[in-house]
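Page 47, continued from p. 46.
Same chain as before, 147 aa.
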Amino acid sequence: METTVNQRLKIIIDELAGHKQASFAKKINVNPSVVNSILGGRNEPSYGVILKILSAYPQIDSDWLIKGEGEMLKPVLPNKPLDNGQFGADVIDILRQKEEYRQLSEQLLEQNKLLTEAVNSLAGKSPASEGALHSIEVKNNEYAPAA
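Result:
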């Protein structure tokens, strides 16, 4: 059975707010008359009201609330125990990769420095070489590791 957004709001109030419109309105920070107007069918919830509902009830699936698609509540992921051995191995691997990237970055900066010196010595100080040097210097600064 397809429901309207107003009907879905009623379902939320019944199932998550204990059938209490006033406490629901307070939780989403709107005047109770706004909720009453929506439930009475006089208005549909505004974009702002929908955002307030989703913020106050993060377990509600936005596709369900807005379009009526799927389930009301987002799926709950099972609580898996943390495998500390694997977690530690993952952290060590990430740290190792970070160090490798740092070393590669330093090597590239050194190669760029050598290229800059080569361009400088080969081209003299012509306008074309000045542009090439400036371009290399800009790239060096872009890829320099943060201190």
